[in-house]
Design goal:
alpha+beta, GCC-box Binding Domain, elongated, Homing Intron 3 (I-Ppo) Encoded Endonuclease, Chain A, three-stranded antiparallel beta sheet, 2 domains
Length: 178
């Protein structure tokens, strides 16, 4: 069920204190200013970056400060509702690009389909792996926990082409090219 809130903070309240601002590094700015207390930098103009490279803002509500992920706030402001059981996917794969047109709701699985190839991937392409026993490139794609095998290929270029087509077919709009 989609809700017009984040962590119980109503959309109307969020609309009264924050607005989408594409000139801001995080994509949001405050409408209403709050006093900062001591060393707490809770109400910075643009929010703060987390270790996962997401923007987070501390939003005051009912005497408490709530850490809210900025891309969730922006999508709520754009769509007027969010499914609390879904994630927000960055279409271009850049977690710092919070342009509303770059954000969409997704399942965890869809979000993973749109992730980049792992750094330890030797081929540099999602779904393409070196098959040591055969001395060929293997194409494997996962969907809903099931692993699909698209064969062994002599040339990396052939394996990449097969992988791209397979991801388009299996993952649809969430299928990342690389």
């Amino acid at each position: 069920m989609k809700l017009p809130s984040i962590q119980g903070i109503p959309l109307e309240y969020i609309q009264s204190i924050l607005k989408i601002d594409l000139t801001s590094p995080s994509g949001l700015t405050w409408i209403k200013k709050f006093k900062t207390a001591g060393t707490l930098k809770a109400y910075k103009e643009k929010g703060v970056l987390t270790g996962k490279k997401y923007w987070v803002m501390k939003v005051p509500c009912n005497g408490k400060r709530h850490d809210l992920i900025v891309h969730r706030i922006i999508l709520l402001l754009k769509e007027k509702e969010l499914d609390p059981d879904k994630e927000v996917d960055h279409d271009d794969g850049n977690s710092l690009n919070n342009n509303p047109d770059n954000l969409r709701e997704s399942t965890h699985s869809e979000n993973m389909h749109n992730s980049k190839a792992p750094k330890n991937n030797t081929s540099g392409h999602k779904g393409v792996f070196w098959h040591k026993a055969s001395g060929k490139w293997e194409v494997r794609i996962r969907l809903n926990g099931k692993l699909y095998n698209f064969g062994l290929h002599e040339k990396l270029e052939d394996a990449v082409k097969v992988s791209i087509e397979a991801r388009k077919k299996l993952h649809g709009e969430f299928g990342r090219i690389k």
